[in-house]
Amino acid sequence: MPSKTLLRAVAVVAVALLPSVASAHPGIGSATGFAHGFGHPISGLDHILAMAMVGLLAYELGGRAIWLVPATFVLVMAGGGALGMAGMTVPFVEVGIALSVVVLGAIVALGVRPSTAVAMGIVGLFAIFHGHAHGTEMPEDAGGMAYAAGFMLATAALHATGIALGFLVGRGGERYGQVVVRSAGVLAAIAGIGLLTGTL
Protein backbone atom coordinates (compact mmCIF):
# COMPACT_ATOMS: atom_id res chain seq x y z
CA MET A 1 0.00 0.00 0.00
CA PRO A 2 1.53 3.39 -1.04
CA SER A 3 0.70 5.10 2.25
CA LYS A 4 2.60 2.46 4.25
CA THR A 5 5.57 2.79 1.91
CA LEU A 6 5.60 6.57 2.35
CA LEU A 7 5.35 6.26 6.13
CA ARG A 8 8.25 3.82 6.21
CA ALA A 9 10.33 6.06 3.96
CA VAL A 10 9.73 9.09 6.21
CA ALA A 11 10.61 7.02 9.28
CA VAL A 12 13.82 5.67 7.74
CA VAL A 13 14.97 9.12 6.62
CA ALA A 14 14.16 10.62 10.03
CA VAL A 15 16.08 7.94 11.92
CA ALA A 16 19.03 8.18 9.53
CA LEU A 17 19.28 11.91 10.15
CA LEU A 18 19.09 11.81 13.96
CA PRO A 19 22.82 12.37 14.54
CA SER A 20 22.74 15.73 12.79
CA VAL A 21 19.88 17.21 14.77
CA ALA A 22 20.41 20.83 15.77
CA SER A 23 19.49 22.30 19.14
CA ALA A 24 16.69 24.84 18.91
CA HIS A 25 16.12 25.19 22.65
CA PRO A 26 19.26 26.34 24.43
CA GLY A 27 17.61 26.48 27.84
CA ILE A 28 19.16 29.80 28.71
CA GLY A 29 16.55 30.63 31.36
CA SER A 30 16.40 34.31 30.43
CA ALA A 31 12.67 34.50 29.68
CA THR A 32 10.32 35.89 32.29
CA GLY A 33 6.63 36.59 32.60
CA PHE A 34 3.49 35.90 30.62
CA ALA A 35 4.51 37.76 27.45
CA HIS A 36 7.73 35.78 27.03
CA GLY A 37 5.90 32.55 27.77
CA PHE A 38 3.21 33.32 25.21
CA GLY A 39 5.72 34.47 22.62
CA HIS A 40 8.03 31.46 22.85
CA PRO A 41 5.76 28.81 21.27
CA ILE A 42 4.64 31.09 18.45
CA SER A 43 8.22 32.07 17.59
CA GLY A 44 9.49 28.55 16.89
CA LEU A 45 8.70 26.72 13.65
CA ASP A 46 8.95 23.35 15.40
CA HIS A 47 6.26 24.18 17.94
CA ILE A 48 3.98 25.95 15.45
CA LEU A 49 4.01 23.02 13.02
CA ALA A 50 3.59 20.34 15.69
CA MET A 51 0.70 22.19 17.34
CA ALA A 52 -1.04 22.83 14.02
CA MET A 53 -0.76 19.11 13.23
CA VAL A 54 -2.21 18.23 16.66
CA GLY A 55 -5.16 20.49 15.85
CA LEU A 56 -5.61 19.05 12.36
CA LEU A 57 -5.40 15.49 13.69
CA ALA A 58 -8.02 16.30 16.34
CA TYR A 59 -10.29 17.75 13.66
CA GLU A 60 -9.80 14.73 11.41
CA LEU A 61 -10.70 12.33 14.22
CA GLY A 62 -13.74 14.40 15.21
CA GLY A 63 -16.08 13.79 18.12
CA ARG A 64 -14.53 13.98 21.58
CA ALA A 65 -11.04 13.91 20.04
CA ILE A 66 -11.47 17.55 19.02
CA TRP A 67 -10.96 18.59 22.63
CA LEU A 68 -9.39 15.49 24.23
CA VAL A 69 -6.33 15.33 21.95
CA PRO A 70 -5.29 19.01 22.33
CA ALA A 71 -6.14 19.00 26.05
CA THR A 72 -3.92 15.95 26.54
CA PHE A 73 -1.04 17.73 24.86
CA VAL A 74 -1.38 20.87 27.00
CA LEU A 75 -1.69 18.94 30.28
CA VAL A 76 1.20 16.56 29.58
CA MET A 77 3.28 19.47 28.30
CA ALA A 78 2.75 21.14 31.68
CA GLY A 79 4.10 17.98 33.34
CA GLY A 80 7.11 18.01 31.02
CA GLY A 81 7.63 21.66 31.89
CA ALA A 82 7.64 20.77 35.59
CA LEU A 83 10.35 18.17 34.92
CA GLY A 84 12.43 20.80 33.14
CA MET A 85 11.98 23.32 35.95
CA ALA A 86 13.00 20.69 38.49
CA GLY A 87 16.22 20.09 36.57
CA MET A 88 15.31 16.50 35.72
CA THR A 89 16.89 15.22 32.52
CA VAL A 90 14.78 13.92 29.65
CA PRO A 91 16.90 12.32 26.92
CA PHE A 92 16.72 13.36 23.27
CA VAL A 93 14.51 16.41 23.86
CA GLU A 94 15.47 18.14 20.61
CA VAL A 95 15.14 14.93 18.63
CA GLY A 96 11.73 14.31 20.20
CA ILE A 97 10.56 17.80 19.28
CA ALA A 98 11.69 17.45 15.67
CA LEU A 99 10.24 13.94 15.42
CA SER A 100 6.91 15.26 16.68
CA VAL A 101 6.70 17.41 13.55
CA VAL A 102 7.71 14.50 11.29
CA VAL A 103 5.39 11.92 12.88
CA LEU A 104 2.35 14.15 13.34
CA GLY A 105 2.81 15.53 9.83
CA ALA A 106 3.04 12.01 8.43
CA ILE A 107 -0.10 10.91 10.30
CA VAL A 108 -2.05 13.82 8.81
CA ALA A 109 -0.48 13.36 5.37
CA LEU A 110 -1.36 9.68 5.21
CA GLY A 111 -4.84 10.14 6.62
CA VAL A 112 -4.14 7.75 9.49
CA ARG A 113 -7.11 7.62 11.86
CA PRO A 114 -5.97 6.18 15.19
CA SER A 115 -8.43 5.77 18.03
CA THR A 116 -8.81 8.77 20.30
CA ALA A 117 -6.89 6.95 23.05
CA VAL A 118 -3.99 6.14 20.74
CA ALA A 119 -3.91 9.72 19.43
CA MET A 120 -3.83 10.99 23.01
CA GLY A 121 -0.92 8.67 23.74
CA ILE A 122 1.03 9.84 20.69
CA VAL A 123 0.57 13.55 21.34
CA GLY A 124 1.17 13.02 25.06
CA LEU A 125 4.54 11.40 24.36
CA PHE A 126 5.68 14.33 22.23
CA ALA A 127 4.23 16.84 24.71
CA ILE A 128 6.81 15.70 27.28
CA PHE A 129 9.65 16.87 25.01
CA HIS A 130 8.00 20.20 24.14
CA GLY A 131 7.16 20.84 27.79
CA HIS A 132 10.63 19.95 29.03
CA ALA A 133 12.22 22.36 26.56
CA HIS A 134 9.99 25.17 27.82
CA GLY A 135 10.49 24.18 31.45
CA THR A 136 14.28 24.40 31.25
CA GLU A 137 13.92 27.99 30.02
CA MET A 138 11.44 28.95 32.71
CA PRO A 139 12.57 31.27 35.50
CA GLU A 140 12.49 29.84 39.00
CA ASP A 141 10.91 32.92 40.59
CA ALA A 142 7.25 33.93 40.64
CA GLY A 143 7.51 34.95 36.99
CA GLY A 144 7.82 31.27 36.13
CA MET A 145 4.13 30.62 36.72
CA ALA A 146 3.17 33.51 34.46
CA TYR A 147 5.60 32.19 31.86
CA ALA A 148 4.00 28.72 32.10
CA ALA A 149 0.52 30.18 31.72
CA GLY A 150 1.69 32.08 28.66
CA PHE A 151 3.19 29.13 26.84
CA MET A 152 0.23 26.88 27.70
CA LEU A 153 -2.24 29.47 26.39
CA ALA A 154 -0.21 30.01 23.21
CA THR A 155 -0.04 26.25 22.65
CA ALA A 156 -3.82 25.93 23.05
CA ALA A 157 -4.26 28.81 20.59
CA LEU A 158 -2.07 27.01 18.04
CA HIS A 159 -4.18 23.87 18.50
CA ALA A 160 -7.31 25.93 17.94
CA THR A 161 -5.74 27.33 14.78
CA GLY A 162 -5.15 23.82 13.46
CA ILE A 163 -8.73 22.81 14.27
CA ALA A 164 -10.06 25.99 12.64
CA LEU A 165 -7.96 25.27 9.55
CA GLY A 166 -9.54 21.83 9.41
CA PHE A 167 -13.03 23.31 9.58
CA LEU A 168 -12.25 25.88 6.89
CA VAL A 169 -10.71 23.30 4.60
CA GLY A 170 -13.64 20.97 5.22
CA ARG A 171 -15.96 23.60 3.80
CA GLY A 172 -14.11 23.25 0.50
CA GLY A 173 -15.62 19.82 0.03
CA GLU A 174 -14.44 16.30 0.77
CA ARG A 175 -12.24 15.94 -2.31
CA TYR A 176 -10.38 19.24 -2.34
CA GLY A 177 -10.40 19.63 1.43
CA GLN A 178 -8.58 16.35 1.92
CA VAL A 179 -5.97 17.33 -0.67
CA VAL A 180 -5.20 20.51 1.27
CA VAL A 181 -5.08 18.70 4.63
CA ARG A 182 -2.83 15.93 3.29
CA SER A 183 -0.57 18.50 1.62
CA ALA A 184 -0.24 20.39 4.91
CA GLY A 185 0.81 17.14 6.57
CA VAL A 186 3.39 16.42 3.87
CA LEU A 187 4.87 19.90 4.18
CA ALA A 188 5.03 19.60 7.97
CA ALA A 189 6.75 16.19 7.76
CA ILE A 190 9.30 17.55 5.29
CA ALA A 191 9.91 20.56 7.53
CA GLY A 192 10.37 18.17 10.45
CA ILE A 193 13.09 16.38 8.53
CA GLY A 194 14.66 19.77 7.92
CA LEU A 195 14.59 20.40 11.68
CA LEU A 196 16.25 17.03 12.29
CA THR A 197 19.03 17.87 9.88
CA GLY A 198 19.46 21.41 11.18
CA THR A 199 18.67 22.89 7.77
CA LEU A 200 15.61 24.74 9.12
Descriptive report:
The two termini are 31 Å apart. The protein has helices at residues 2-16, 33-39, 45-61, 65-85, 93-110, 116-136, 143-170, 174-197. The protein is globular and about 50 Å long. Helices cover 76% and strands 0% of the residues. Mean pLDDT is 82; it is low at 9-30. It has 200 residues and is mainly alpha-helical.
**With helices defined by DSSP (H or I, 4 residues minimum), what is the helix count?**
8
Structural class: mainly alpha
Can you count the beta strands? 0
Order of helices and strands: HHHHHHHH
Q: Residue share in helices?
A: over 70%
Biggest sheet details = none
Domains, number: 1
Q: What fraction of the residues are assigned to beta strands by DSSP?
A: under 5%
Give the overall shape, derived from the CA principal axes: globular
Q: How much is the radius of gyration in Å?
A: 16 Å
Sequence stretches where pLDDT stays below 50 over 5 or more residues? 9-30
Mean pLDDT across the residues is 82
End-to-end C-alpha gap: 31 Å
Keywords:
200 residues; mainly alpha
How does the SSE layout of this entry go?
Elements: H1 2-16, H2 33-39, H3 45-61, H4 65-85, H5 93-110, H6 116-136, H7 143-170, H8 174-197
Helix pairs in contact: 1-5, 2-7, 3-4, 3-5, 3-6, 3-7, 3-8, 4-6, 4-7, 5-6, 5-8
Quick description:
The chain is mainly alpha-helical. It is built from eight helices and no strands.
